[in-house]
Design brief:
alpha/beta; Dihydrofolate Reductase, subunit A; eight-stranded mixed β-sheet; two-stranded antiparallel sheet
Length: 165
């Protein structure tokens, strides 16, 4: 099973502000939907609560330390390892790690792919994507989207694949 991280970050690695996405990028959301449709997605509790509901067409796994936490329509687990094993046990071909910052930090070391949207701008973020060694990754795909009425900032979407030694 492929473990993939999917994220959008600004020039300073900002990914969120006040538990919300800090931009409006219609083309990025469309790409997110296309990639994750039909797959298991893993989110932290705060990210799930910012979304507010299970995403249609996907199996959502919420990671939380709270043993009493319930999320209607979702699976609730208590570690990223448990989330990945749950998806693997169900025969998933590719599981998507969808945030937030803590979940990204816990999975960057085991991820096989990073679907990374690099937003050409800086926002007043309070949540950041973890540092990672770009030398461990090769770029397999890239496309540029200019800003327009549906995309607040220009951005470059990149698919990074971990180089296994």
């Amino acid at each position: 099973m492929i473990v993939s991280i999917i994220a959008a970050m600004d020039r300073k690695r900002g990914i969120g502000v006040d538990n919300k996405l800090p931009w409006r990028l219609s083309a990025d959301l469309k790409k997110f939907r296309e990639l994750t449709m039909g797959h298991h997605i893993v989110v932290g509790r705060k990210t799930f609560e910012s979304i507010g509901k299970p995403l249609p067409g996907r199996r959502m796994i919420v990671v939380t330390r709270d043993v009493n936490y319930k999320a209607d329509g979702c699976d609730v687990v208590h570690s990223v390892e448990e989330a990945i094993e749950l998806a693997r046990g169900r025969g998933e071909s590719e599981v998507f790690i969808c945030g937030g910052a803590e979940i990204y930090a816990q999975t960057i070391g085991v991820a096989d792919r990073i679907y990374l949207t690099l937003v050409d701008g800086e926002v007043a973020a309070d949540t950041f994507f973890p540092e990672f060694d770009r030398r461990e990754w090769s770029e397999r795909e890239s496309f540029y989207q200019s800003a327009n009425e549906k995309n607040q900032y220009p951005f470059t979407f990149r698919l990074l694949v971990r180089e296994r030694q």
